[in-house]
Specification:
This protein is an alpha/beta fold. It has one domain: Rossmann fold (3-Layer(aba) Sandwich), CATH 3.40.50. It is built from nine helices and 13 strands. The chain has a seven-stranded parallel β-sheet, sandwiched between helices. Helix 2 links the parallel strand 2 and strand 3. Helix 1 crosses helix 6, helix 3 runs parallel beside helix 4 and helix 7 packs across helix 9.
Length: 322
């Protein structure tokens, strides 16, 4: 019988995670929405359960005999607030109602996001997030993920079920959707913006490394340490990223230094946020190339893993297979 229930199994992250788990011999039950998706998973050896997180009547029985849940399903849009709330919050609530009372359940792992937290007003753009950050996020996506974290915590409070919350940085790799964050940045590298040596910092994690961290969580090695940030441990600047992309494409381009300009943007934005609260209508992530709002200070060795991919090697693998 399947032991691990995985949601979002046919998505960008989920497809890599399911392949990784099945290759390691895990018994997986995958929640999919259509028969076509179920057939797509047939070669992995996992069992498909056809249902929908937004259709709670399709979920009863999904948790039978499972020992762990790996909840990956999400709407990752930073701008579509309605869909983000529906999938990330309501969908999580529906899943919890279906599995929380499963007598065999021992661990529930939620894939959240680095954006589920923010720096305090007045430092949102200038400072990266870390384990000390505790402010409410300034994006609808971040707020929906933060609420999903609360729902999981409340569902298992006082229960003998371990909960693990993973907060990955920007995830990239083969199979990323065309409008995904890294693909958007790769396209920007070929525009005039790519000629600027932007000093804003960005944290990333290759999808295969994230799959490895999921396996670590399932082994129980992150119990009691949640929530945890997941990155490759080496934040890069947007200028460095653009330069790497152009070099990999065989068309290196000179860049114009704009460090002082970026520093000025940080100071102005954070000052206006401290006095006027502009992050309410201009979230800091929109100015990430000038600051550190999409950067995270975390050491992967603290989680017991060493990333296989640096940004350059990961982009090389990704672009070669695109």
């Amino acid at each position: 019988m399947p032991e691990i229930l995985v949601t979002g199994a046919t998505g960008f992250v989920g497809s890599h995670v399911v392949s990784h788990l099945c290759a390691q011999g895990y018994s997986v039950r995958a929640l999919v929405r259509t028969g076509e998706q179920a057939r797509h998973l047939a070669d992995t050896g996992c069992q498909a359960w056809i249902g929908d997180l937004m259709g709670p009547m399709s979920l009863p029985g999904i948790g039978q005999d499972i020992t762990q849940v790996l909840h990956l399903a999400a709407n990752a849009s930073l701008v579509d607030s309605d869909d983000a709330f529906k999938v990330n919050t309501v969908g999580t609530r529906n899943l919890l109602q279906a599995v929380a009372d499963t007598p065999t359940l021992r661990r529930f792992t939620l894939m959240s996001s680095m954006t589920a937290l923010s720096r305090s007003t007045g430092s949102r753009l200038r400072r990266p997030v870390d384990a000390t950050s505790d402010e409410e996020p300034d994006t609808a996506y971040g707020r929906s993920k933060r609420e999903a974290e609360r729902l999981v915590e409340e569902a298992f409070e006082g229960r003998e079920v371990q909960t693990v919350v993973l907060r990955p940085a920007l995830v990239y790799g083969q199979g990323n959707r065309s409008n995904g964050g890294m693909n958007t940045l790769v396209r920007l590298a070929t525009t005039g913006l790519g000629r600027l040596n932007l000093t804003g910092r960005l944290s990333t994690i290759h999808v295969d490394d994230l799959a490895s961290v999921c396996a670590i969580a399932l082994e129980g090695r992150l119990d009691g340490r949640s929530p945890v940030f997941v990155t490759d441990g080496s934040p890069t600047t947007f200028g460095e990223l653009f330069r790497t992309v152009s070099e990999l494409a065989g068309h290196p381009r000179p860049q114009t230094p704009v460090g002082l300009f970026c520093a000025g943007i940080q100071l102005i934005y954070d000052a206006l946020d401290a006095t006027l609260g502009i992050s309410r209508w201009l979230p800091a992530f929109r100015l990430a190339p000038f600051g550190a709002s999409l950067a995270c200070e975390a050491n992967p060795k603290d989680l017991g893993y060493t990333p296989r991919y640096s940004l350059k090697s990961g982009l090389t693998q990704t672009l070669r297979n695109t």
